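re: the backbone from monday

yeah here it is again, tokenized this time
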């Protein structure tokens, strides 16, 4: 691995930084290596960086631990994905608290056009299992990537169903790559590597402690276009993930259940308070996500004969080499005001040049 990757891993190991301040340091200094080369006085002037953090940055134990981690990654065929890397999940990249570094082993493209998260209780019922499998089977024609947490219950059902119906599936871990938890899913994780993979933000040696799993949940929520809650009690990890997904402007779907069933109470509540779309078949996902809209003929003809204004061209330039762009990228990539951008996007969408997608994203047609 490159020397740059060494510094990127080292930065994530500095005590007291965190993902938000870590990205701030990279932005101020110009790169991970530059953070470690920066003078103490300059570091002290960066908002959120105190004396303890500065001392930690110059501590060579961090570099030694980063070198140890690189040896582990190379030995085990694990990729280190920094948040600025091309292969880093772009949907997650737009979340303010996304991990600076992800460790990934597998073959799946994390930036495919359709990504669905599936979460739920560890105590999945026959109803939940059959419904989840049926929906995933139906999604096989959409060639989606299925994301879950490789836990007992709904997570395992989702991963196994994806493999059964030839869909790529990635499990997000709440620990380091040195193990698989629960151990019963080790064989499942190996099977997932051929077409999917496993992913974590934690360095090797990190144990599956309970405080790690809420962090894992935000990765699941941030990586997807939409999140499906299969079964859940009113309180639990799936409900936390749904709440995070809503905060990220992701579409959330919930499978309704019988009144009084403890593991349907969470789903029924999400639907009742309008925090989730009611889900009975995969067609519900296609309808809300607009996957069933045929945009192949008329928009292309419109685009061929349409002249762009100066402001429209600035927006279209952001799409160079990419058919899917987040609103934040359009704001950063143009010198237009938010109100002007909104007006331009509406005009382009009306004329069939762009289409708006959930999660503040726009697709070039």
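seq for it, each position gets an aa:
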């Amino acid at each position: 691995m490159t020397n740059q990757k060494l510094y990127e891993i080292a930065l994530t190991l500095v005590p007291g930084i965190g993902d938000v301040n870590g990205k701030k340091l990279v932005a101020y200094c110009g790169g991970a290596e530059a953070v470690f080369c920066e003078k103490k006085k300059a570091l002290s002037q960066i908002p959120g960086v105190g004396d303890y953090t500065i001392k930690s940055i110059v501590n060579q134990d961090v570099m030694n631990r980063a070198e140890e981690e690189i040896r582990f990654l190379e030995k085990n065929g694990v990729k280190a994905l920094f948040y600025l890397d091309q292969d880093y999940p772009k949907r997650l990249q737009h979340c303010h608290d996304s991990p600076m570094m992800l460790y990934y082993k597998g073959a799946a493209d994390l930036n495919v056009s359709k990504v669905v998260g599936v979460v739920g209780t560890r105590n999945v019922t026959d109803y939940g299992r059959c419904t989840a499998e049926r929906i995933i089977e139906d999604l096989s024609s959409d060639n989606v990537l299925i994301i879950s947490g490789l836990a007992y219950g709904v997570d395992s059902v989702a991963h196994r169903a994806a493999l059964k119906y030839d869909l790529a599936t990635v499990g997000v871990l709440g620990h380091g790559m040195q193990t698989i938890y629960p151990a019963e899913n080790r064989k499942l994780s190996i099977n997932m590597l051929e077409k999917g993979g496993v992913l974590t933000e934690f360095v090797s040696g990190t144990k599956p402690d309970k405080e790690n799993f809420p962090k894992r949940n935000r990765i699941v929520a941030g990586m997807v276009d939409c999140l499906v809650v299969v079964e859940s009690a009113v309180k639990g990890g799936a409900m936390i993930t749904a709440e995070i997904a809503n905060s990220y402007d992701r579409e959330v779907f919930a499978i309704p259940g019988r009144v009084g069933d403890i593991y349907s109470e969470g789903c029924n509540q999400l639907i009742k308070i309008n925090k989730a779309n009611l889900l009975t078949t995969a067609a519900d996902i296609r309808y809300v996500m607009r996957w069933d809209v045929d945009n192949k003929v008329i928009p292309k003809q419109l685009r061929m004969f349409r002249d762009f204004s100066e402001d429209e061209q600035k927006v279209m330039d952001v799409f160079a080499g990419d058919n899917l762009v987040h609103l934040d990228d359009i704001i950063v990539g143009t010198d237009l005001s938010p109100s002007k951008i909104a007006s331009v996007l509406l005009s382009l969408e009306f004329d069939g040049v762009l289409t708006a997608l959930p999660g503040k994203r726009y697709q070039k047609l």
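Residues 295-304 have pLDDT under 50 and may be disordered. The CA atoms of residues 151 and 182 lie 7 Å apart.
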